[in-house]
Structures are given as C-alpha cells and as structure tokens.
Amino acid sequence: MTPPRGPKRAKERDSYPPRFHTKGRAVYHVTGTKPQKWTKIGTIDDMPAAITAWGKIEYSHAPISDGTVRAVATKFLGLLDDPANPLKLAETTRRNYKLMLRIEPPSTLILAFGKMLMADVRKHHIADYLDASPHPVAANRQIQLFSKMFQYCERKGMAGVEANPCYKLERNHESARSVYVDDALYCAIWTCAWNSDAWKRYAAAMDISLITGWREGEILRIRETDFDADELRGSESKDKAKRMRLPMFPALAAALQRALDVRAETPGGVPMICKSLFTGRQGAQLTDGGFKSGWGRMMRAAVADKTITAEQRFHFHDIRAKHASDRDDDLAQLALGHTSARMTAVYMRNPKGRKYDGLDSPAVGGGTTKKDEK
C-alpha cells in the first residue's frame, strides 16, 4: 500500500525557498498575490538552473511607473538596500549615495533634476549643472552617481531612456591633493593630541598610520585578536578579501600598546565589552563618522590654540601619503597595496624627495633603524 503523500510534500515544501513549488517533475514560481501566477522555471532534474531562474524572478525590480528623476532615485535607493544588490557597493559608498539622492529634504541633485523625466535629460542639462555648482568636485561625484542611475534605467528597459547623457561628458577639473605633512607639523599635531584626554586616541592612531600606511577604516577595524608577538593582521577597506600582514617590530608594538593604554583610559573602553582597539565612550567600536568628526574638532582646536595655522590643517588620510612619500619609491606601492604605480604616484608628495625609513613616529622616537639592525 502506498503511504499518503501529504506529510512528505509538506516536508519538501519547507526545504524550498518561498514561492518555489514543484508539480510532478516541473518546477514553478508562484506569486504570493491573487490571482496566483504560475511560471515554469525548470524541472527537478536540473534544480540549480531552476533556483537560478527563481532568483531572477524573485529579485527582479518592478517597472518604474513614474519616469521622473525623483521616482527613479527612490527606486535606486531601494536597490541600494536590496540584499541581492548587483552594485556590490561598500558601506561608505552606499551612505554617500543615499545623501546625494535624499528625497526629503531634497538633495542638490534632486532639487535640480527631480521633476524632469529621465528621458528628457540631455548633455547640456548636465553641463549646466556642473558649471553652476559652487562645489565642482562634489558636482562631479553627483553626476557620476547620476550616470549609474541612467545605466540602471537602460538595464531595466525604461521607455525613452536610450542613451546616457553623462557618458563622455567633460567633468569639472580636479586637482590632485598635494598636502605633505612634514615632521614638524606631524610633531605639533601629535603633541597637541597626546596632551589632551579628548584627543589622545588620535595620537595613537597617527602612529599606527605612519608606521603601517593603512587607511583610516583599516586602522579602526583592528581588534586585540588581530595582532600578537609575531605580526599584525588586517583586511583592505576597498577589498576585504585581500588580507594584510605586517611583522611585529618594536616601533609597531609600541604604537599598538599606546593604543591599548588609551583605550583603557577611555570611558567604556573595557576589553570584555569590545575587542576593538579604538572605542567610543559607550564601549562600541569607533565609527568612521565619529572618528572624522573628532579629527575635525581636534584640528579646529589646534588652530584656535595657535598650535598650527588654518592653512596647515590636514586630513588623517594625508598621513598615509606621508608614509609613502618618506620611503623608497619601489617600496611604496607594496606598502600601500596598490595594483598600479600610477595610483601610488598620487601619494608621493614629498617636495624634497627625502627617503625616510617611515617606521617610527618622529614625535615619540625609539624603534629600530636600518643602521641599528646592522
């Protein structure tokens, strides 16, 4: 006697993703709304292909009913939060895109183009926007995002959008950053930070940046478990699949220990709560935004105290350029993890061309040099 099929079918159904059904040897995608629509997506003999077809239907975006820039921006913002996001953007990039496409209150880009139809935007509209913007570099980034929106519309076959007006359009001129942080300026800011309880963590971060050449985000992600007596380990911010390893020499060990000491003095910086090397006052890992805002306040305080002039202010990222500029050119690309020498050349800013070991903080001293090793 053949056993009843009910329980077995229910068990099989639980192992399938939502709206994925089998009927005989055929596999269907069934809509969750009534009237239900059954779409054949394959057979049980080739389940991988059926699941792939199910994913294409499940994560396909509904057509855009309103062709205005505002409506497309709203749809595009939803795409950024989609787990099946084909753009694969970094968290910082996604956050910046959301600011540039903010609907309420409307961002500059939405104010200028929000009511226009995507199909009506032409190259001269983009050029006028670039020319009129008081912030040329920011306008370039906004138009770069606008171009991605047009690519999205073309991919979805939006009516009337056949060409990207942002393509091959001359953007505003951008000058390469040329700020070089010399030893005297570095020492002045380091001393200002170290002598203040509010900014001491930045002195520790400056040392680690100067020694390693790592980016701000890479330094903020360092945890106690990422270093030991032999090496410091991490992953690149631009590509987390790329791992980084540095031998634990005395200067680096001293810088990490200073960071641990500062964390112990920070309210909430209890190791049992958070293993991150840099923590906020609530005990959680210090965020990129919190670090940047604090760095800006420290720089303004240094100017107010006449430690430096307003023209001498620099970004934390400029310390990475100092790391590259103060060492041999053939080692800078390897240290910064760049795939091309052209990208490394952007960071070579030392006007005197001095070759400095770069493995210790001039504010702290100590560590080993090449002569000591010999």
Structure characterization notes:
By secondary structure, the chain is mainly alpha-helical. 45% of the residues lie in helices and 7% in strands. It contains 16 helices and 5 strands. The chain has helices at 6-14, 47-58, 69-80, 91-100, 108-113, 123-132, 136-155, 183-194, 200-212, 216-220, 250-265, 288-304, 318-325, 329-336, 341-347, 370-373; strands spanning 20-23, 26-30, 38-43, 231-235, 243-247. Strands 1-2-3 form a 3-stranded antiparallel β-sheet. A two-stranded antiparallel ribbon has the order 4-5. Helix 6 (123-132) runs antiparallel to helix 7 (136-155) and helix 9 runs parallel beside helix 13 (318-325).
Short summary:
The protein is mostly helical and 374 residues long.
What would the keywords be for this entry?
374 residues, mainly alpha, 16 helices, 5 strands, 45% helix, disordered N terminus
Helix content: 40-55%
Order of helices and strands: HEEEHHHHHHHHHEEHHHHHH
Class based on secondary structure composition and strand pairing: mainly alpha
| Major beta-sheet overview | 3 strands, antiparallel
Strand order in the sheet with the most strands: 1-2-3
Annotation, overall tally of beta strands: 5
Shape: globular
Beginning-to-end CA distance, first to last residue: 87 Å
Overall radius of gyration: 27 Å
Number of helices: 16
